[in-house]
Write a structure and sequence with these properties.
The complex is a heterotrimer. Chain A is mainly β. Chain A has one helix and 16 strands. Helices cover 2% and strands 44% of the residues of chain A. The longest helix of chain A is centred in the last third of the chain and has 4 residues. The radius of gyration of chain A is 24 Å and the shape is elongated. In chain B, strands 1, 4, 5, 7, 8 and 9 form a six-stranded mixed beta sheet that branches. In chain B, strands 12, 13, 15, 16 and 17 form a five-stranded antiparallel beta sheet that branches. Chain B has a three-stranded antiparallel beta sheet with strand order 2-3-6, with no helix packed on it. Chain C has a two-stranded antiparallel sheet. Chain C has six helices and two strands. The longest helix of chain C is centred in the middle third of the chain and has 26 residues. The chains are: A mainly beta, B mainly beta, C mainly alpha.
């Protein structure tokens, strides 16, 4: 086949984007190249060093490649690399920095479900699951990955506009002695202390306490 | 280099894990005097040939004070030194007498505001930095023997302590705790509030 | 398991500012790891991960690895970057503090070394001495995250 000249500009900003340990390699196209660029991807386990090609990301024209399966052991650290091809030319292999799935992932907010009685609201929190290969695979909660996981819960009284904060470790909470017929909005955040990680706050879930039947 | 007198009265001001090195100005008629600060941890003395490490934020500064908090980040004995420069003239190093260990920092009681919102007991605490936790003690007024405690690690909001019984008075006090040096401050002033409802009269 | 600052290493219980060490390392991790071009060798994880070590031997390995980092690693990691040097000093002095705390456990016989940890520590030394001093020290410092993950 024709000789490949590796003088094509390099892919840019090659990095892992990780959410709940779904680890996706992303990059930007080489400067000044339009359509028609193709890419190859390889990865390696730090300390092993053997580069392994990712068949599903061979000569792709998109600028991402899901390496979650290949980087699912979060006791290891990884590198990945991308090479660009265009009209018989190619770029260099451009590598990521060392990727540590345990500390370099972003955690989603917890799922929040709320219910109410006349004078209380009940909150149930569910930590997100670690990425898994298929729906059939057994789910692993991030609670199992990060044993020190805690929740910050915010409760806003829509009438008084006052916001209270709770720090809890378990996943259920009841806020008693509230005002009947009043709307409360709840949002929650995950905090991990070792390593230091925290999610954004979830969106607000609003619910009203029931009206006081005696009034 | 022509010699300047080294800075004198070198001392540390350390409060709530914020550490400052201060010294008296060196006076040179008609010249702007600049100062540079270096530190040496126990590691540098024992394993790195007693090397000194410059603090670049305090290199050739006009002020007679340097915030060394960022570099005093281990609970070991540190040495600190400062020298003066004016034009081509430079002083010998003036060294802090003895060592500084952050374990000696002075811890002040936290600023605290207690709020009763209906039947809910809430507290607002001042933000003091990641090294700080807060031990908040609260009890029904008159029942000091049945105190409850809550450890608060994040204070950027209004913290919910507990729900209160109708019409009862509740009192709260708080102290800071710094895990890195395993020390706590004195307690803040006690503040008491009353839950909504009920008719009993009580005095603070 | 470790709270933010309490390390439970078998019978040995040590209070330590892991968050400060972790924060110091995170701020120089990319800089230090970029100076280590050798991806095919790990000092701490070859041939086996630290996670394979029996819980009963965690204290021994932590204690000896603290000494390893204090005596062999930090001193050979001086760079041209004063910010990096200051952070290395911060981590090194924190490790000195941690080693002192572990020494108490050692003296109370709560930090026993079995055959497995002795072999693991020997392997780490072999891995370290397989490189020139500066490369080995920079690689070891770049792997501090592996040690912290395992300790926590």
């Amino acid at each position: 086949s024709g000789e490949l000249y590796c003088s094509l500009p390099n892919p840019r900003n090659v990095h892992f984007e990780s959410v709940n340990m779904k680890n996706v390699l992303r990059w930007l196209p080489p400067e000044g190249t339009g359509a028609g660029v193709f890419y190859r991807v390889k990865y390696s386990v730090y300390g092993v060093g053997k580069w392994i090609r990712k068949p599903e990301c061979k000569y792709i024209n998109r600028t991402w490649c899901d390496l979650s399966s290949e980087t699912s052991d979060y006791e290891e650290q990884y590198y990945a690399s991308v090479k660009a091809f265009l009209n018989g030319m190619c770029s260099d292999w451009i590598e990521t920095t060392r990727f540590n799935p345990l500390t370099d992932t972003t955690i989603d907010p917890p799922m929040v479900s709320v219910s109410s009685t006349e004078k209380s609201i009940s909150i149930i929190l569910t930590a997100p699951e670690k990425w898994k290969r298929s729906p059939e695979e057994e789910s692993v909660s991030l609670l199992q990955v990060y044993p020190g996981l805690q929740y910050n819960v915010s409760v806003l009284n829509k009438k008084t506009k006052k916001r209270w904060f709770f720090s809890i470790s378990n996943t259920t909470m009841v806020v008693p002695w509230l005002e009947p017929g009043t709307a409360y909005c709840v949002s929650a955040q995950i905090r991990v202390t070792t390593p230091l990680l925290h999610s954004q706050f979830s969106k607000e879930y609003c619910i009203s306490t029931l009206k006081d039947k005696t009034a | 280099d022509a010699l300047l007198p080294p800075p004198q009265n070198i001392s540390i001001l350390s409060t709530n894990m914020k550490h400052f090195l201060t010294w008296s100005p060196v006076i040179v008629q008609g010249e702007a005097v600049r100062y540079s600060v270096e530190f040496q941890g126990e590691y540098e003395r024992e394993y790195a040939n007693e090397s000194w490490i410059p603090i670049c934020e305090c290199s050739l500064i006009a002020a007679t004070e340097c915030n060394i908090t960022e570099d005093i980040s281990a609970t070991v004995a540190y040495k600190l030194r400062v020298r003066a420069e004016a034009g081509a003239a430079r002083s010998e190093w003036g060294t802090l007498k003895g060592f500084f260990n952050r374990i000696t920092t002075s811890l002040t009681p936290p600023l605290m505001k207690v709020i009763a919102d209906g039947y809910h007991l809430l507290v607002e605490l001042e933000e003091m930095g990641p090294a700080f936790q807060f031990w908040v003690l609260y009890w029904k007024k008159g029942q000091e023997s049945r105190m409850q405690q809550k450890v608060v690690k994040e204070v950027s909001h209004m913290i919910h302590l507990d729900t209160m019984e109708e019409g009862l008075g509740y009192c709260v006090k708080a102290q800071t705790y710094v895990e890195a040096i395993n020390r706590s401050s004195g307690f803040s002033q006690t503040q008491c509030v009353r839950a909504q409802g009920g008719t009993s009269m009580w005095l603070v | 398991t470790a709270g933010n600052n309490i390390l439970q290493l078998g019978p040995c219980r040590v209070s330590m500012s892991m968050a400060e060490i972790r924060s110091g390392f995170n701020s120089i991790k990319a800089n230090i790891q970029a100076r280590d071009p050798i991806k095919s060798l790990s000092i701490l994880s070859y041939p086996h991960s630290l996670h394979k070590v029996k819980p009963s031997e965690r204290c021994c390995i932590t204690h000896h690895l603290c000494s390893f980092y204090v005596a062999k690693v930090f001193r050979h990691c001086r760079t041209e970057d004063s910010y990096v040097n200051r952070k290395i000093s911060s981590i090194a002095n924190s490790f000195l503090s941690l080693r002192r705390n572990l020494q108490h456990c050692h003296e109370q016989n709560k930090c026993m070394c079995g055959q497995e940890s002795t072999e693991k520590l020997k392997q780490i030394t072999v891995n370290y001495e397989g490189l020139n001093v500066t490369s080995a020290a920079i690689k070891s410092l770049g792997e501090l995250g592996i040690l912290l993950d395992w300790m926590e």
